[in-house]
Amino acid sequence: MRVLEPLVGLIKGLWTTLSSMFEKPVTIQYPEQKRPVRPRFRGRHVLKRYENGLEKCIGCALCAAACPADAIFVESAENTDEERYSPGDRYANTYEINMLRCIFCGFCEDACPTEAIVLGDNYELSFTDRRQAIYPKEMLLEPTASTNMLTPQKTAPSVFTRSVPEMKDPTD
Amino acid sequence: MNYGLIIEWLIKGLVLVFILLGGFAYLTLYERKALARIQVRIGPNRAGPWGILQPIADAIKLIFKEELMPAQADKLIFFLAPVVTLVPALVITAVVPWGPTLTVFGHTLTLYIADINVGVLYIMSVASIAVYGIVLAGWSSNNKYSMMGGLRSSAQMVSYEIALGLAFVSAILLAGTMRMVDIVEAQKTTWFVLLQPVGTAIFLIATLAEVNRAPFDMPEAEQELTAGYHVEYSGMKFALIFMAEYDKMIAISAIGATLFFGGYRGPFVDQFPWLGPIYIFLKIVVLLFGMIWVRATFPRIRYDRLMAFGWKVLLPLSLAVVFITAVGIILAQQVNALLIWLIPAASLLAGFVAIAMMYRTLRRKEYARA
User: Fold this and answer.
1) Which ipTM score applies to this complex?
2) B280–chain A nearest CA distance, Å
3) Cβ–Cβ gap A5/B38 under 8 Å
4) Are A18 and B362 a contacting pair at CB < 8 A?
5) Could you tell me which residues come within 8 angstroms of residue A78 by beta carbon, excluding any fewer than 6 positions away?
């Protein structure tokens, strides 16, 4: 009965919606349940550390140069063996990211010579004040396993001379 | 003057109004939940267990919202329009019988407020007042979108009211009375939906247009008119318009249940009269689910198609249905009572012819486009 097509179409549509009522809801109850992010997800930045707790960031400001949104501000200072923050000569004594400007493109990650800045998996970046949008170094730094690994550290002289560590078999 | 009777009326009226207001609140939740389930979601579930406090949260939000009035608006009419839309939606339910006569402590209690002998006529006349509120709301806002919404609404309601009235006529003919209580009693053996399925279908379609529900929600088409006639309304004034819409849904479902689905009648209702309100409540819930279901399924139809469907399909079909019903009743009375079943057969045939004609027109349009 092709003549009944107008009616059959309507009934088919109604059946589709009715049958979808009995499917399991796809809702994720957000604040309680969180869906894990994808491996390549670009969330809030994290400043990484070496195993001994020294910061990977050497304050070169290449990330700030690469940043298309001009969201990163870096100011560097000299390391000493008495007060060592990172291997090599220099470290970032100010590292600020303006989360209102950041577009999460990940160019800073690519530009970093020591792989110090990494876009993590935190996407809950709410704030109530524009001033809170500027994330200082303390918020971005990865936490350490124990308190004696916090920077600055007192290190043996002429051990951490290279700012970029020697790699045995660099692949990329 | 019997003061006891006046007090009884007052109490019944207040109870009915409160039921409708509470019903509006929970109808919004019911709709949101049902729509969510159809869209494979959960729906509101934060405010209270299963979200049952959501309507209260919504009400509190609306009460505390700022009330804005456009500077160029016609202040008085802008203020009155929500009231004019809400009052008919509440008043219309006065003639609906919610149950059979109860005997409470030796006192006979009728579960309707007014037993008018032209109940159906009253419904038609009060239902058409509601459109004034919508048109005035659209006009007084002094906004082109709301104006368009109001105009569309009036055109649509006027067109579909004819088909709706003729669908009423088929029920009136079958019952032989306009009194709502007698219409329900006439459906003791067979519901009118069985005797007049096409009339019921026309009623259900026309009511969708009458209460501006999808797929006939042209007056408040979000995408084209942002919200139609109530663009400029906010706060409690908006809540009143919203309430009117949902109360109209409840009222029209109650009327549909009464006219075609046996009203408060159901199994064992004669032995246990208090089952009556439960039955009509269930029927209303089912009809409301139908409205929500249709909203979740069909896209909004184009405005000229809407008018064409109303005037070129529904109106002739409802005229044919009234004619068939009248002829069938005369045949049943004069020749054989079993001939009453000619009515559903002949009206289904008429419905089939209408669908076939629609199919032909649509095909021709397709060819014309190709």
Assistant:
1) 0.76
2) 23
3) no
4) no
5) A89, A90
pTM of the model: 0.80
Beta strands A45-47 and B102-104, pairing class: unpaired
Beta carbons of A23 and B39 less than 8 Å apart:
no
Q: Inter-chain contact A3–B39, Cβ cutoff 8 Å?
A: no
Which three-class secondary structure state does DSSP give residue A46?
Answer: strand
What is the predicted pLDDT for the residue at B221?
65
Cα–Cα separations (whole angstroms), residue B107 to B3, B5, B103, B277, B364: 15, 11, 5, 18, 65
Partners of B359 on chain A (C-beta within 8 Å) are 2-6
Asked if A18 has any chain B CB less than 8 Å from its own CB, the reply is yes
DSSP letter at B341?
A: G
Whether residue A13 lies within 8 A of chain B, CB to CB, comes out as: yes
The Cα B191–Cα B179 span in angstroms is 16
Do A25 and B297 make contact, defined as CB atoms within 8 angstroms?
no
Convert the pLDDT of each residue in B223-278 to its tens digit: 677 777 777 887 888 888 888 888 888 988 888 888 888 878 777 777 777 777 88
To the nearest 5 percent, what fractions of chain A are helix, strand and coil?
Answer: 25, 15, 60
The residues near B339 (Cβ < 8 Å, ≥ 6 apart) are B328, B331, B332
Domains of chain A: 51-144 (3.30.70.3270)
C-beta of residue A56 within 8 angstroms of C-beta of residue A85: no
The shortest CB-CB distance from B38 to any of A3, A7, A20 is to: A20
- Are B175 and B186 in contact by the 8 Å Cβ rule? The answer is yes
Look at B173 and B113; give whichever has higher pLDDT. B173
User: What was the pLDDT predicted at A68?
Assistant: 93
Contacts of B314 in chain A (CB under 8 A): none
The residues, any chain, with a CB within 8 Å of residue B289's CB and separated by 6 or more, are B34
Q: Structural domain boundaries of chain B?
A: 3-369
Smallest Cβ–Cβ distance between B356 and the set A3, A10, A27 belongs to A3
pLDDT digit string (tens) for A72-85? Answer: 999 999 988 888 88
- How far apart are the CA of B299 and the nearest CA of chain A, in angstroms? 10
Q: Does A2 touch chain B (CB under 8 A)?
A: yes
Measured between beta carbons, which residues in chain A are less than 8 angstroms from residue B42? 25, 27, 29
Chain A contact present for B274, CB below 8 A: no
Per-residue pLDDT tens digits for B32-63: 889 898 988 888 888 888 888 888 888 888 88
- For residue B52, give how far its alpha carbon lies from the nearest alpha carbon of chain A (Å): 17
CB contact under 8 A, B355 and A10: no
Q: Give the mean pLDDT of chain B.
A: 83
Q: What is the pLDDT of residue A103?
A: 92
Mean pLDDT confidence for B215-226: 70
DSSP 3-state assignment of B310? helix
Q: How far is CA B195 from CA B61, B265, B345, in A?
A: 47, 16, 9
Mean pLDDT of B331-343: 81
